[in-house]
Specification:
The chain has 139 residues and is mostly helical. The protein has 7 helices and no strands. The protein has one domain. The longest helix has 27 residues, at 108-134.
């Protein structure tokens, strides 16, 4: 879980004070953010293999792992705006959940409160898929 939290913190630091346009224009920044998402997704996959019950505590984990796979294997169809949106809007909550998970398990009420975030990750992926099939690739 520490690798996940470290990667999420790195992404937050990389994009702090940036705009979507500056993100799109900076290849090194995009590469760094995408690399940290790969690390984050892989760290989650490993953590879930070791402790499948984490899925209940981190319901957005499946979406984050899927997003890692998109970055690694479908990079040519990935829109910078999708990465930006997930980094700005979805990642902070997952990072908070993961940081809270390190010392102990959250309550059942905490788990229920996190479930909508998993849907947001899936929706971001659906939007990316729809956008890439409906229009030419944009960065």
């Amino acid at each position: 879980m520490q690798d996940l939290v470290t990667a999420a913190d790195a992404i937050g630091g990389f994009i702090a004070g940036r705009t979507l346009d500056s993100y799109k224009a900076d290849l090194m920044l995009r590469s760094a953010v995408e690399r940290q998402f790969e690390i984050l997704g892989e760290a989650l996959a490993r953590a879930l293999r070791l402790d499948p019950e984490l899925q209940e505590c981190l319901p957005a984990s499946r979406g984050a792992i899927d997003f890692r796979n998109v970055i690694a294997h479908e990079y040519d169809a990935l829109a910078a705006a999708t990465v930006w949106d997930i980094a700005r809007n979805e990642l902070p909550a997952l990072a908070r959940d993961a940081a809270a998970e390190r010392p102990g398990r959250p309550t059942a009420a905490d788990q229920r409160a996190r479930r909508p975030r998993a849907a947001a990750w899936r929706e971001a992926r659906r939007a990316r898929t729809a956008a890439s099939s409906a229009s030419p690739r944009s960065l």
